[in-house]
């Protein structure tokens, strides 16, 4: 991570512990927003891999655990809503391409038993240097920030996005305006 980017990381307090399960391919990506989220939150962990046998013990140790991932089973779907204050809760976030994130969910059976939280439609992603097929798709750090803003409405999570905004601007500047216009503007 560039020195300039580190200067923009400010740890934000959060009651909901965030666990980012990052696919190994994503950990090598220079635009790694899951890592930025983990660095910017006081209560967060970043685990890299596909299979996480220690996950069962962690889930069992909290009052409630949720998976931030669209689910196929409507009985497991839950709309995001504020969590009770004082409850030890865990938000599990698979990080990678949709294919890699699905793989993480598939090979860790405990994840399919958790209530699935899905983000309401909101502003388009500010991740202007990566293309997504879905118009509602957002980066991992944006998804975490939006989720925590709903789960903990008394806290301001916007500072979490400062290094992300700098990262995006640095990437646009590095590629130059012509390349950016040709490949990333619709």
What do you see in this structure?
It is a single chain. This protein has 186 residues and is of the alpha/beta class. The protein has one domain: Alpha/beta knot. It is 39% helix and 16% strand. Strands 2-1-5-3-6-4 form a six-stranded parallel beta sheet. Helix 3 (33-40) runs parallel beside helix 7 (140-151). The protein is globular and about 50 Å long.
Keywords summarizing the entry:
single chain; 186 residues; alpha/beta; Alpha/beta knot; six-stranded parallel sheet; 8 helices; 39% helix; globular
| Overall CATH architecture | 3-Layer(aba) Sandwich
Helix segment count? 8
- End-to-end gap: 29 Å
Helix percentage range: 25-40%
Overall pLDDT level: 82
Q: Tell me the total number of β-strands.
A: 6
| Total domain units | 1
CATH class: Alpha Beta
Biggest β-sheet strands, sense, barrel: 6 strands, parallel
Give the spatial strand order of the biggest sheet: 2-1-5-3-6-4
In sequence order, what are the helices and strands, one letter per element?
HEHHEHEEEHHEHH
- What is the strand content? 15-25%
Q: Which class do the helix and strand fractions yield?
A: alpha/beta
How would you summarize what this structure contains?
By secondary structure, the protein is α/β, with parallel strands linked by helices. The protein has helices at residues 3-6, 24-27, 33-40, 55-60, 98-107, 109-113, 140-151, 162-184; strands at 17-22, 44-48, 64-68, 77-79, 89-95, 116-118. It is globular, with a radius of gyration of 16 Å.
């Amino acid at each position: 991570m560039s020195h300039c980017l580190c200067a923009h990381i400010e740890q934000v307090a959060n009651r909901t512990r965030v666990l980012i399960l990052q696919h190994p391919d994503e950990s090598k990506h220079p635009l790694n927003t899951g890592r930025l989220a983990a660095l910017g939150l006081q209560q967060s962990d970043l685990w890299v891999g596909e299979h996480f046998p220690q996950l069962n013990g962690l889930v069992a140790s909290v009052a409630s655990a949720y998976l931030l991932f669209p689910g196929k089973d409507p009985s497991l779907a839950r709309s995001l809503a504020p969590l009770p204050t004082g409850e030890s809760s865990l938000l599990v976030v698979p990080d990678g391409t949709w294919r890699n994130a699905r793989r993480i969910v598939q090979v860790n059976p405990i994840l399919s038993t958790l209530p699935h939280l899905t983000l309401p439609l909101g502003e388009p992603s500010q991740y202007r240097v990566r293309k997504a097929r879905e118009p509602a798709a957002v980066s991992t750090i944006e998804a975490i920030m939006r989720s925590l803003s709903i789960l903990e409405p008394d806290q301001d999570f916007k500072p979490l996005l400062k290094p992300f905004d700098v990262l995006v601007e640095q990437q646009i500047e590095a590629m130059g305006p012509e390349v950016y216009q040709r490949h990333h503007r619709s």
